[in-house]
Amino acid sequence: MKNQKLLWKMSNRAPKKTRKELSVDQKISRRNFISFTVFGALGLSAYGGWRWLYNSPMEPAGGITGDTRVPLRRALNKTELAFRKVFSNNHLVKTYPKEMAAKNVRHNTDIGSKSKLDAAAWRLQVRKISGEIMAISIDEIKSLPKFDIVYDFKCVEGWDQIQHWGGVRFVDFIKHFGLEAETKLDYVGLETPDKQYYVGLDMPSAMHPQTLLAYEMNEQPIPVRHGAPLRLIIPVKYGIKNLKRIGSISFSNKRPHDYWAEQGYDYYSGL
Amino acid sequence: MFIYWANDEYSITIFGHTFVRFFPDWYYNLLHIPSRLAEGMAFHFLFMWFFTLNGIFYILYTIISGEWRELVPQKKSFKEAWLVVLHDLHIRKMAPPQNKYNAAQRIAYTAIIVMGIGSVITGLAIYKPVQFYYLTWICGGYHFARIIHFALTLGYVFFFVIHVVQVILAGWDNFRSVVSGFEVVNEEPKTVVENE
User: Fold this and answer.
1) B133 — contact with chain A (CB < 8 Å)?
2) Which end of chain A is less enclosed by CB atoms within 10 A, N or C?
3) To 5 degrees, how large is the angle CA A33–CA A37–CA A40?
């Protein structure tokens, strides 16, 4: 029956009168030929597209981002722009009762905080637009209102853990030290004192109401391996952005350099 | 879709780091993907767009063309699907009813759409758990959403493997009809034509 159906369908297409009517077999082979040509072309172009992408050049060395294929980086940046539209300070990370916080807090790396910490000499350096560099002691920071957060810390590696951190909110810190003008710029850069680890943050994420400059973990001073004396806790970003042992903070309209973005990771890594 | 999919092997590395004990070392060596997390994520966040758009276009197509009527399981499908399984495993001789798609195919091809929607939702839930907190909540939390997302990925692997095996078993003319959209049946009197 299907033969007849096919015939009927084809006759609907009104073949040119001048041409000789094709036999059924001819029609079948013609349609097969067209179908398989299209199928093959699509298959080849998909394969070619993949080869093109896979063999596409890497980003030039020495840039703000690096170590990934140029089209993939472009895709990461475009994706960030798309998802940035849903970012809002009203979207808060879920918090938990503090009993749920892990006692044995996971430790991943010591990049940037391997050297011995001289706690007495430590000052937070803040580079203002004017070029002036403020040096803020930990006691000054601790005198500001403390904010506690118990939330699910998320790592790009795939693990997550409920952790309890306490410190001053970045927004409160900005207000207290009169850095409102600096927050008109697009980015914040943070570095460890030895400049071995560094991150760049977009301003809206830094100014998120749950972003902390933390000095307590589980209501105790942060241990050295977890980033004493002061570390960044930014729940709207993956763990790679949560810099330990902050040495300096700067502000800029250009993207500050970022340790993991140079190694192929998304610059923004937002959640 | 499967062409991209088959090539997108690196997306698995993300889970590789989660489920380190899940994937043994030989698996990574086989695919040549040890510790390439950043690369995997970059591919993943590009190809997610293709998969999602592809899924949306496919669903729109089935709705607009009315093809969904051939695909959505009917009441009798679940019973018939069992017959299909028995028939395919050569336990039962009699062929179950076959229209464009048989009952098992209806269930499988509808399930894959549901799975695809599930992947998009759980994917968004773990990609932006703060911005799409309600999706994360629906999925039973961040951690559970990750597990569902991963389980669905394994589901696609099984779907893919079974699918390819079935196509090979069904033979060349069946494959030809998949590509060209029509089937040549040489009808002779009193010949029972069994598909699959």
Assistant:
1) yes
2) N
3) 135
On whether residue B137 sits in a domain, the answer given is yes
The span from the CA of A140 to the CA of A176, in Å, is 10
**Per-residue pLDDT tens for B140-172?**
888 888 888 888 888 888 888 888 888 888 777
Whether residue B170 lies inside any domain: the answer is yes
Residue B102's SS3 state is strand
Going by C-beta distance under 8 Å and a sequence separation of 6 or more, which residues neighbour residue B146? A158, B18, B122, B126
Identify whether the C-beta of residue A167 lies closer than 8 Å to the C-beta of residue A230: yes
Q: Is the pLDDT of residue B62 over 90?
A: no
A–B: how many Cβ contacts below 8 A?
A: 106
**Nearest residue of chain A to residue B130 (CA atoms):** A93
B38 touches chain A (CB under 8 A): yes
> What average pLDDT does this structure show over B50-63?
89
CATH number at B130 reads 1.20.950.20
Alpha-carbon span A243 to A191, nearest angstrom: 8
Q: How many CA atoms lie within 13 A of A125 on its CB side?
A: 16
Tell me whether residues B46 and A3 touch, CB distance under 8 A.
Answer: no
Kindly report the nearest CA distance between residue B46 and chain A, in angstroms.
6
Query: Range of B74's domain?
Result: 67-180
Q: Would an 8 Å CB–CB cutoff place A88 in contact with chain B? A: yes
Highest mean pLDDT among A180-184, B161-165, B166-170, B175-179: A180-184
Residue ranges of B 169-188 with Cβ closer than 8 A to chain A? 176, 179-185, 187
Q: How many domains are there within chain B?
A: 1
- Residue A77: its chain B contacts at CB < 8 A? none
Q: How confident is the model at residue B188 (pLDDT cuts 50, 70, 90)?
A: low
> Rounded CA gap, B24 and A127, in Å?
48
Q: Which of A59, A70, A85, A64 is nearest to A253 (CA)?
A: A64
Q: Which residue of A has its CA nearest to B129?
A: A271
**pLDDT one-digit tens code per residue, A193-245:** 999 999 999 999 999 999 999 999 999 999 999 998 999 999 999 999 999 99
Selected residues 154-183 of chain A with any CB under 8 Å from a CB in chain B: 154, 156-160
